[in-house]
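A reminder before we start the practical. When you read a complex entry, don't treat the lines as separate problems. The point of joint prediction is that each chain is placed relative to the others, so the output describes one connected object in space. Small molecules and nucleic acid strands, if listed, are placed in the same frame. In the example below there are two entries. Take a minute to note the order of the lines before looking further.
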Amino acid sequence: MSDLAAATKADFPLLSRDVYGKPIVYLDSAATSQKPQAVLDAMDGYYRTVNANVHRGAYHIADIATQAMEEARAKLQHFVGAASPREIIFCRNATEAVNLVAHSWGRTNLREGDAVLLTHMEHHANIVPWHMLAAELDIELRWLPLDNDGRLDLRNLDRLLDGVRLVAFSAMSNVLGTIPPIRRIADAAHERGAVVLLDGAQYVPHVPTDVTELGCDFLAFSGHKMCGPTGIGVLWGREELLEAMPPFMGGGEMILNVTTEGFLPNELPWKFEAGTPAIAEVVGLGAAVDYLSGIGMEAVRRHDTSLTAYALRTLTERHGERLTIHGPAEPAARGGVLSFEYGDVHAHDISQVLDEWAVCVRAGHHCAKPLMRCLGVVATARASVYIYNDTSDIDELSEALDRVGDLFGPQ
Amino acid sequence: MPGLEDLYREIVLDHYRNPRNRGELPCPPARRAEGFNPLCGDEVVVYTDLADGMVRDVRFGGQGCSISQSTASMMSVAVKGRSLEEVEKLERSFKAMMSIVTDGGEVAPPADLGDLEALRGVVKFPVRIKCATLCWNTLTESLRS
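Here is the predicted structure of the whole assembly.
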């Protein structure tokens, strides 16, 4: 398992830095991943040698910039198994992608009394847009619950799907790591004529992704969690759905013609890309896709699973009953996201002590307050792994947790 | 680099482990206000019982980290039996200690913060300042309600 980290760690300049004189132990990739040199070089090279606005100028570098952007789109298309580059919409992040679906598809297709099915493990990005739409359209929000192992409880799925027009759920929980039976839920939704939106923010960076195999209609994901820059994400949608949807934001780039009387929207995908896009970030994301494809997403998934298994085993062995790790006990059913509690020490205090040892973990509600309520906590600490982590990072975390016990343990 | 000992002073941990004035007060006559820290999900509830311009009694509840809970405990001790004017002075003084400028940049009047002085180190950990001010903001809301 450490072979992959040994091969990749040197590619990430930030991971060679110290924190308080100690080597950094970065365990917060579920929040954002670090960036390899190849991505930094691609963005730097773009600004140094190519920078020009896209789809406008007839001059040489404008042409190269446009090509660079559309080449990146093709890379993203192949990365998720999309049928056409017309189905790859660049947006700011997964959050904006979900909002795009809510505003454009939702407002066009949902009527008073329709239902949208979500789950208790959703990120706020896949909750709040639907609350906002529910307040506007008087639609009903329904919730798939979790079982005690942190997996979706599908026993009442058929009943919950009655009257549902859209099922929107996370392909991998950002708190529990849970990977639900995506295909099964998507098939059940389609049998009822519902459309399926997957929040792939955690899934796409870590698991080989093929939209046809997943059986979804929309897939939202962010670039910055998959070795790419911040400020760039993707909405993939089935072409016939995107074709029938009205534009999301208005402006330049998204039109074919504008008159004083009205406008004619552009073709896909530009219909949904108003204004000058984040060109350098698109180029950076393209480089990130190349980087991950070079490793192979099957290898990424194997590495994550094996490191997660190591973490579950060794942390539990060392810390016993003081440590509670949420989410499925079976590594194959989850990603490398470990939310935990340590005795009754608050997550903020845990992460503060770990910081002293240069161990970076997230503390808080992870933008998933309904899930926190289901777990009966206000916050958890969360360690999450990626391609550059190895067993030594888990060992450092484990040792630093002893310091938490020293400071906050029974007196 | 600030060390953990700057943050987790013994007196802070004592208030965290043995909180003073934790509980509820019947409303009415007491007033109740809730505060949330959207960053970490901490929640605090402050009950105040006012009479003749004085904080006759105070209780707090909720869930949060050692800093938010210990601050609430220390604050409850500091404001109990004080006039509203004195409470306001304490709050401004405490926030000044947290490098928060209130009321258009006026220098906060000095006040005896008692145990709350132990939280002086929080200012070295900017992310935690909100943990220490949550209960104060909730107290103010409760007094204004």
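Discuss with your neighbour: Residues 297-319 of chain A form the longest helix (23 residues). What might explain this?
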